[in-house]
Specification:
elongated; alpha+beta; 321 residues; six-stranded mixed β-sheet
């Protein structure tokens, strides 16, 4: 029996979609129905939702979360909010699903088919270009960004040993300086009780972050944080010095990975490197929790490499009809 393709709604797909996630390459929080639904509700309503299921013998083996805006067909989501985007496809059915997906997309009305946020090892990066070139379309592929990440060591001391001598020395020196500054501590909360303080630190730390946090984006952050907290994926970290919250970071604990999504700090404490140190403490907590990978997500900020990360490219694919 061949694959069946059907247009669906979030409600009709959510349970099966969640069950499919661990058996797909795109098992990140950004591809969950939870994340995708919230993005669509808060930021995506200006487009037309095109959410397709692929079933084999009645079992869900693929989800294509897409939208159409005028003549542009794309993933649900946008790169400034969603660090990774992809199709959700069972590893055992990749060839069949991608071929059926390409045939179905070919039957739709569009002029450009644009996919962003595809991580380098994704099967989408290999299969979609060849399938659409075979159909006579032109295909552009480019590196869109990098997501530095690192495989985690079993202990904090083992992790420190992986750093260069210079980076290890600098990290320890900054930690000692923080200890001498007063009563310093860091901690994580798994609810949104202190979300306002996180947002305040984020907006005051850099002008570009303040511009990014428009009312619509802030509404998305609040809805996303609440939903992820209820699902058990949210970790909101704070660093305090003498009882004052001086830096904060929002992290996701999903699928055995820790990801740091965004952060902010009090510029009055810049001399204590409170932004970088809290990220190091997040990493330390991920190691203590036995997670296998720490993902710094998008951006080539220098501190990520000081903490030992290496680049993982993120690609975009554009098909021109």
């Amino acid at each position: 029996m061949g694959l069946t393709v059907r247009e669906e709604e979030f409600d009709s797909l959510e349970a099966e979609w969640n069950a499919l996630m661990p058996n797909s390459f795109s098992d990140t929080v950004f591809s969950t129905p939870l994340w995708q639904r919230i993005w669509w509700q808060e930021l995506g309503q200006q487009g037309e939702l095109l959410l397709y299921s692929f079933r084999k013998d009645g079992k869900l083996v693929g989800v294509a979360p897409m939208m159409r805006q005028n003549a542009l067909l794309s993933f649900i989501g946008e790169s400034s909010i969603c660090d990774y985007l992809d199709f959700v496809v069972s590893r055992e059915a990749e060839e069949e699903v991608y071929r059926a997906l390409a045939d179905h997309i070919e039957s739709l009305e569009w002029e450009s088919f644009s996919l962003s946020g595809i991580p380098a090892p994704s099967p989408t990066l290999n299969r979609i270009p060849s399938l659409f070139r075979d159909k006579g379309h032109s295909v552009d592929i480019r590196v869109e960004d990098v997501c530095p990440r690192l495989e985690l060591s079993p202990t904090w001391d083992d992790y420190l040993a992986t750093l260069t001598k210079k980076d290890r020395h600098e990290l320890r020196r900054k930690m000692r300086r923080l200890e001498k500054a007063g009563d310093a501590c860091y901690y994580a909360v798994e609810d949104t009780q202190h979300l306002d303080e996180f947002l305040s630190l984020l907006k005051t730390s850099r002008q570009d972050k303040a511009r990014f946090m428009t009312p619509k984006v802030e509404n998305f952050f609040r809805a996303m944080a609440q939903a992820l907290a209820q699902a058990g994926y949210l970790r909101l970290f704070f660093l305090e010095v003498n009882g004052t919250k001086v830096s904060s970071a929002i992290c996701f604990d999903y699928g055995g990975w820790f990801s740091i999504y965004n952060s902010g700090y009090d510029v009055a404490y810049s001399s204590l490197s409170v932004g970088l140190l809290l990220k190091a403490f997040c990493l330390k907590e991920a190691i203590a929790a036995g997670r296998r990978c720490f993902d710094f997500l998008r951006g080539a900020e220098y501190y990520k490499y000081d903490l030992g990360a290496t680049d993982m490219p993120v690609y975009s694919i554009t098909v021109h009809r």
